[in-house]
Design a protein that fits this description.
single chain, alpha/beta, TIM Barrel, 11 helices, 8 strands, 46% helix, DNA-binding
Length: 297
DNA sequence: TCACGTCAAGCAGAT
DNA sequence: ATCTGCTTGACGTGA
């Protein structure tokens, strides 16, 4: 099991998701921002390797406005050597990579404009992975989208629109359950129709379905990942103690986490910790898992 | 230097 | 109707 955290590292003093406002878009501004984001991504990956955190989610802000109509710059060409060398590092160190487009990427929207922009945004993510020459073990995780008052139709629209995507996107795309509209079973149904693996978010499912069976979930999820997809990815979060149901806590809740690790035996997966304290929480988790396996022998 | 209004984009649920 | 949260706050103007 590899343990990772998303997008941001708070220890090393750089930001890999710098952006700027659309109205200040210039070629210079874009190039300098992407350069700086790539510099920081490299530093984060080196930090992660030193600290044995071999799973990382790359920020969608790596190339600001990449899929926006304003983008007239061939950033792929400008930075292809940079992407290639970062990709070589990732492969050399055996780092698992994921990406997660934002809330505006909605593949099942009734608006064809939204669907087209979403496909463009997905293609941008896929291009990053492709420029790094990563295999289909790297993944782009996407929620199903909206319900629009008719869940069955909306599920079918997702499947239809998925089938229209280009092969570069399909190679990397996985479907993730959310906490209010589409649960694990919905994603499994989509997977059966599309072949897309399911990324299981444990926290989302625990909000959606009280007392779900973790082992059953992991068994069903596992079947959607083929050899070329690698072992399944999971998202894990801790509930904020005094926060609303569904609020992410700042820190890893150790006892809950150890329960989860024990209950998830014997399934294999890579674990993304969606916890505000990022690499700090991931490092704690790593220590807990190490100590726990020593304890169990 | 700092405060704070705003930022490309969608949707659902709470207030 | 308006606000909030979402994988993640950061940008940028004005004081």
């Amino acid at each position: 099991m590899k343990i990772g955290y998303p997008c941001i590292n708070r220890s090393i003093g750089c930001s890999g998701n710098k952006t700027f406002q659309l109205k200040s878009f210039t070629k210079e501004r874009l190039l300098e921002t992407v350069q700086s984001n790539l510099d920081c991504l490299e530093k984060i990956l080196i930090f992660n390797v030193i600290n044995h955190l071999l799973f990382f989610r790359i920020s969608s802000d790596l190339v600001p406005f990449a899929s926006h109509p304003i983008m007239s710059i061939n950033w792929q060409e400008e930075f292809k050597n940079r992407f290639k060398s970062i990709g070589e590092y990732i492969k050399e160190k055996n780092i698992r990579i994921s990406m997660h487009p934002g809330q505006y990427t909605v593949l099942n929207s009734p608006s064809s404009d939204v669907v087209q922009r979403s496909a463009a945004e997905l293609d941008y993510h896929a291009q990053i992975l492709e420029l790094m020459d990563l295999t289909s073990e790297a993944k782009i995780q996407l929620h199903v989208g909206g319900v629009y008052g008719n869940k069955l139709e909306s599920l079918q629209r997702f499947i239809r629109n998925y089938r229209q995507l280009n092969s570069r996107i399909k190679r990397y795309l996985v479907v993730e359950n959310d906490e209010r509209s589409y649960c694990l079973v919905d994603c499994l149904n989509i997977s059966a129709e599309t072949g897309a693996p399911v990324l299981f978010d444990v926290f989302h499912e625990s909000i959606f379905t009280k007392n779900f069976m973790l082992n059953t979930a992991l068994e069903l999820q596992k079947e959607t990942w083929s050899d070329s997809d690698g072992i399944p990815m999971l998202d894990y979060s801790s509930q904020k103690a005094d926060g609303k149901m569904g609020a992410h806590s700042d820190d890893l809740v150790s006892l809950d986490f150890l329960d989860f690790i024990n209950e998830s035996q014997p399934y294999e997966f890579d674990l993304m910790l969606e916890i505000k304290n990022k690499e700090k929480a991931a490092l704690e988790a790593l220590e807990l898992v190490k100590a726990d396996s020593r304890f169990r022998g």
